[in-house]
Hints:
The complex is a heterodimer of chains A (321) and B (504).
Chain A: H1 3-32, H2 40-58, H3 61-85, H4 90-113, E1 130-132, H5 145-153, E2 154-156, H6 157-175, H7 177-187, H8 189-194, H9 199-225, H10 237-247, H11 252-272, E3 276-277, E4 281-282, H12 285-303
Antiparallel strand pairs in A: 1-2, 3-4
Chain B: E1 6-15, E2 18-28, E3 33-38, H1 44-51, E4 59-64, E5 67-69, H2 74-79, E6 82-85, H3 97-102, H4 111-129, H5 144-157, E7 162-166, H6 174-189, E8 193-198, H7 201-207, E9 210-215, E10 218-224, H8 230-238, E11 256-266, E12 272-282, E13 285-290, H9 297-305, E14 312-317, E15 332-335, H10 339-343, H11 350-354, E16 365-366, E17 369-370, H12 372-385, H13 402-415, E18 420-424, H14 432-447, E19 451-455, H15 459-465, E20 468-473, E21 476-481, H16 487-494, H17 499-503
Parallel strand pairs in B: 3-8, 3-9, 6-7, 7-8, 13-19, 13-20, 15-18, 18-19
Antiparallel strand pairs in B: 1-2, 1-4, 4-5, 9-10, 11-12, 11-14, 16-17, 20-21
Helix pairs in contact in B: 13-14
Amino acid sequence: MDFGFWISFFDSTLRSATPLLLACLAGLYSERSGVFDIGLEGKILASAFAGAAAGVLIGDAYIALFIAVMVSVFFALIHGVACITFRGNQIVSGVAINFLAAGLTAVIGNALFSMGGRTPQIPEDGRFREFPLFFADRLEGVPVIGPLADVLLNQPSFVYMAFLAVPFTWYVLFRTRFGLRLRAVGENPAAVDTAGISVIRLRYQAVICCGILCGLAGATLSMALNAGFVNNMSAGRGFIALAALIFAKWRPVQAMFACLLFGFLDASEARLQGRELWLVGEVPVQFIQALPYVLVVVLLAGFIGKARAPKAGGVAYVKER
Amino acid sequence: MTAPAIELKGISKSFGPVHANKDIDLRVEKGTIHGIIGENGAGKSTLMSILYGFYEADAGTIAVDGTVVKIKNSDQAIALGIGMVHQHFMLVEPFTVLENIMLGAEGGAFLNKGRAAARKELERLEREFELHVDLDAVVDDLPVGLQQRVEILKALYRGAEILILDEPTGVLTPDEADHLFRILGQLKAQGKTVMMITHKLREIMAITDDVSVMRQGEMVATRQTAHTSVDELAELMVGRHVLLRVDKGPANPGAVKLSVSGLTVVDELGVTRLKNVSFDVRQGEIVGIAGVSGNGQSELLEAIAGIGPIASGEVHLDCDAEDTPWRPRPGLGHVPEDRHKMGLVTKFQARENTILGYQREAKFGQGMFLDRAAILETTKAEMERYDVRPPDPYLKAANFSGGNQQKIVIAREIEQDPDVLIVGQPTRGVDVGAIEAIHRRLIELRDSGKAILLVSVELDEIRALSDRILVMFAGEIMGELPPTATEREVGLLMSGVRAEEAAE
């Protein structure tokens, strides 16, 4: 296990963490406003498919990205209409969105490309490549710093975006009017209403933010980390992102660390396979794949203490006395 | 004469078949404190909500400062200079005082800019109106009296000229209430108009200039406070003559029936809620526990009822009731503090609620089956005896008024003929007329030789009913007082000042 091994480990951790982090922040906007969102998974899946399909059919990465985000926002708005306007149950609506996305992507994918739900490989112009920043290339060859710079500064732009979204979200949440109102509406919507602010509008804004970020997460998967869509590509990332959100107690910086932890586990999956481990011998693949979920259960149950969710979360706002 | 601050003409509002406000006229003069009283469901809160833009009236006009206006939402009400302090505070608990006040009036998209200006303005308001609050404190950590001040500051910060307070003293100690009245006096002196909703007649007499009385959705009278009396107002409210004082003879205490010794309760967060509480209740007496809510009374009731955990100490009941495996304390009747959470299943019908907790008694059924006829008979009999209206055993508990719900609970517990009765907030949210009946029933019970423990946040109630008063503060019994003790004496203990300290 030399330096190169750790560098590539670090690289895959960052890449695995990126869609998680985007989805986690998406959930943060929604849940801070009091709208629980189980449907992150579905939105990631739908936008991953939309991005890949548009990339294949149109061949322009930016248009494809726009379409991916729009699809995700569309699903977010369905959730919004169901939960905010019609005061439906947020969990049921979220689950419905997950099913809807899983079904639609497979059916439409098969109808368009007849590849069992997969899309063909996206052509070069339809996807996002690594986007080197600053002087990353000039450091090539310098020992230690060179490879490190390559990991940090030569990534798909989604990676930078995800990590920049963390301080941005922090600032929005704690230093702007929108953030103050967003946090307030998730705690006590009646207080927001009596202060003369529309609860409904505020929650829709939050849900749209959530849709945009989920769209980016999906596009990251199919257009940057891979070059096409396969069935059930999101593979539970939406749920892991939710777990990370709870770990982080709905705070952006902590959310980043939680996502890095899960990204790290995801990256170790590939590296542990087939290896002889001290004492236990070779670990079965299935065990490694289950590890993130086991960790979620163990950590949630025992180590992170009581997570205090936004108080009005999960409850539609009804004016009443 | 100047235009009145508020003039309502012909305001009506219905919720489905319920006529909450019927053709209401109201005139509130500028720079006065105007009280609005009425029983629960008289339509006071609806009327104020219309004024604050929470609801829109079906008919009628509102004039502010002589101009007819339409108020469609709270935003417009705020713009017209109307501020409201709700009964349940509209505060975001994990936020600081400053954040709460700025919410909705941030002064720009970025908080930093508005924050300094807000702080300066608020410090000015605090000085002007004696409304001192630490702006950086988290609201959750503040006592209710201070939270209320935050609400008042919030309204003033938005430039309120007319301040509406909905049941402002319900959660305050007598001391805090006095302070609130001083603040209101200060506001009046500065030319602001105050409207105060309450059902406490004494407060009306103490602080208002004018008072309007509502009954069943109608405005029945407006009086100058100086030219009316408590008795007249009570009669106007209820629509018939009410006996405000409780008639009772001297107590005849007998043997100790309930004995609490060294009771300590620690909640799941590890906070000590009750500290080494000891007292006795004898048969034929009512012992009242006074205190601001949240000082351990709930934990005390639950521990005595055998439904809450006890860390150490003992509760001893001296009753000859049979030991029943399904009742934690046979021979004890418990009227819980919160009838909705613990006293009733509101989705059940009245007859089902009649047997809650006693459903395994032989008289209500054998084996697996309930004796529906016997239950129905019991319910009918109880409804008649306690004057529950409407006397419909099939009506869901949720559809009775608060007073009648309370009567159902009290009837159930008393009719099981317990030796010891513990009663929490027997008249919370209950109309004046029903209060009279409940109080009379408790006195009757005492005179028939039961031991009664009464917990209430209503000091008047405690003083009227109790033969001995124990005052609780922060989980401890601060001292015992006779029912003749003055409000000030009790109030001092309620705020945690012991008698010997007060003397110093």
